[in-house]
Design goal:
The protein has about 290 residues and is α/β, with parallel strands linked by helices. The protein is about 40% helix and about 20% strand. It is built from ten helices and twelve strands. α4 packs across α5 (about 135-145) and α9 (about 255-270) crosses α10 (about 275-285). The chain is globular and about 60 Å long. It starts with 7 loop residues before the first strand and ends with a helix. The mean pLDDT is about 95.
Length: about 290
């Protein structure tokens, strides 16, 4: 990669960002398409978020991705926010158009694309159990509802967040959305009767691979699709448990790649080389 005064810069802002494989993923795509761009990761503290956005304008970045803990806090600091992130209440991609910062969200759409293209499962008409009610979970819940899921049962260690998310989804979509307490018999029944089970929490992420968002007495039925938004490790404890019971599994690598590909297309207005990006991620995670 030859970086010059003409090179367009994109990047990632968050705290922390040292674990991110987004630079490898995007830079591999730029190199494949011979685009004069480079991607860097930048650690930004909460108190410095506005200064970071001012810097993106001043230094004429083409755009940035946004990760925790800034996805919600960044919204009032932008010049424009498109419809989907306004509905989700979180932005993960910002495009700089001549100093005008425009917010997008590719997380939920990336998950739906991974569901369809990586697992060959469409959400329409499906009964879904969603573990988690944070920003990532909200993006997934809204896209599942928009994509025609039949029902959504939401649980979280913070009951008020899960209850609020189920109410929010019901207020915007014609879907049965329920809050179910963790460890409840109702949640166990919902898991046994669902088509798709999704973990959208960090429980089980490296370095805590021995943890699972469901206790051992939960039965994961054979034949369902169990998804984990975690990609490190590539097979979480939840997915191991699901595989042992005969369920199909989908880890977070597909969502990571596909949300990144959608962001790449926003930044560059070029079709993303998805498989090149996937291979770069696998290599960065020492899986290839």
């Amino acid at each position: 990669m030859n970086i010059s005064g003409k090179t367009k810069t994109v990047g990632l802002i968050g705290d922390p960002v040292s674990h991110s494989v987004s630079p490898q993923m995007h830079n591999a795509a730029f190199e494949e398409l011979k685009l004069d761009y480079c991607y860097i990761a930048m650690q930004v503290d909460k108190k410095d978020l506005k200064k970071a956005l001012d810097g993106i304008r001043a230094e004429n970045f083409a755009g940035v991705n946004v990760t925790v803990p800034h996805k919600e806090a960044v919204i009032p600091l932008l010049d424009e926010v498109t419809k989907l992130p306004r509905l989700i209440g979180a932005v993960n991609t910002i495009k700089n158009e001549n100093g005008k910062l425009i917010g997008y969200n590719t997380d939920g759409t990336g998950f739906i694309e991974s569901l369809k293209k990586d697992a060959n499962v469409g959400p329409k008409g499906k009964k879904v159990v969603l573990i988690g009610a944070g920003g990532g979970a909200k993006a997934v819940a809204i896209m599942l509802a928009e994509s025609g899921a039949k029902s959504l049962a939401i649980t979280d260690i913070l009951s008020d967040k899960a209850s609020s998310l189920s109410d929010y989804v019901k207020s915007h979509f014609d879907i049965e959305a329920l809050f179910l307490p963790q460890k409840s018999n109702e949640l166990k029944a919902a898991v046994k009767n669902c088509d798709i089970l999704i973990n959208a929490t960090p429980v089980g992420m490296h370095p805590n691979e021995n943890k699972c968002p469901l206790s051992d007495d939960f039965e994961i039925p054979k034949g369902i699709l169990a998804c984990d938004l975690i990609y490190n490790p590539p097979e979480s404890k939840l997915l191991k448990k699901a595989k042992e019971s005969g369920a199909k599994t989908l880890n977070g690598i597909g969502m990571l790649v596909r949300q990144g590909a959608l962001a790449f297309e926003i930044f560059t207005e070029n079709e993303a080389p998805v498989e090149v990006m996937r291979n770069a991620v696998l290599k960065a995670l020492n899986l290839a």
